[in-house]
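hi! just following up on the protien thing from before. the input was this:
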Amino acid sequence: MSAMIRIEAGIWVQVQPAADVPVSTHQDDLRRAAALPQWRADRFLRGRGLLRELLHATAPHLADADVVPDERGQPRLAGYPRAGVSISHSEGQLACALAAGRPVGVDVQHPAHSVGVGLAHRLLRGHAPRVLALPPDEAADAVAWVWTAQEACVKAAGSGLAGRPWTIDVTPGARCGRWGAYRWISLREYSDTPLSCAFGAPREG
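and the predicted 3d structure came back as:
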């Protein structure tokens, strides 16, 4: 499945099987990949390739910018501090996001075959008993959707796991919500694989 999704004005998400994404040939991407083990280099270059496809389609003036990590390892477009970008990988599936003038995070996650009681309570807290009562595959799917929303939020905030995504209250089955200054949307109508995007208010300046 491949989809380019317009979330709202200036915010885009693209999701595609990694095998269908050409590797990036951008010189800075190749330079950064050269320092990685082969398996990581291939994943890295496909993630960058998908992001550059999205940039070419929606914001061509950004498409050749270097993608550089910030102090927390989050990707940024060199020379364009107001543009938000995000990339996610999960078991052969890739997703990326672009937001013009605001922070953005995207997360894609293949569900596990089942979910442990401890993990369910950690991620879902008060919602856990209802989800654990479902058949194992349905419970695992519900948990994966919740995790993508939680992870997208901390990516948009730029904090990653340091932002303690498991503490974000996401109601299983919900399609959208808020976490502080960030809104999140689970893209259920576009992706069978759990996929969520979060974004903040427009940046000033």
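The longest helix spans residues 136-157.
The mean pLDDT is 94.
cheers
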